[in-house]
Amino acid sequence: MHFASFSDFMAMGGYAFYVWLSFGLTLISLIGIIVSTRMKTRSLLNELRSKQAREERRKAAQQMENTL
C-alpha cells in the first residue's frame, strides 16, 4: 500500500486508531516481558549467590569444628 503523504500514512486509511493502538499495546507488552524477565533473572542470581555464600560459611564452620 502506498500513501500520498506522511499524514495519509499516519491516518492509515481511516483505521489509524486501531492500527496504532495495536502497535502500542504490542510494544508495551514486549517491554513488560523484557523488564519482568530481567527482574526475575536478577532475583534468581541474587538467591543463588546467597545460597553459595551460605554453603561456604557452613563448610568453613564445619572445618573449624573438625580442627577443634
Structural category is mainly alpha
Order of helices and strands: HH
Helix tally? 2
Number of strands: 0
What percentage of amino acids are in beta strands? under 5%
Overall pLDDT metric? 93
Share of helix among residues?
over 70%
Uncertain spans, ≥5 residues at pLDDT below 50?
none
Largest sheet: none
Radius of gyration (Å) = 27 Å
CA-CA gap between termini: 83 Å
Q: Give the overall shape, derived from the CA principal axes.
A: rod-shaped
List keywords for this structure.
mainly alpha, 2 helices, 68 residues
What does this structure look like?
With 68 residues, the chain is mostly helical. The longest helix is centred in the middle third of the chain and has 52 residues, at 16-67. The chain has two helices and no strands. The chain is rod-shaped, with a radius of gyration of 27 Å. The mean pLDDT is 93.
Task: Provide a short characterization of the protein structure.
This protein is mainly α and 68 residues long.
Which secondary structure elements does this structure contain, and how are they paired or packed?
Layout: H1 6-11, H2 16-67
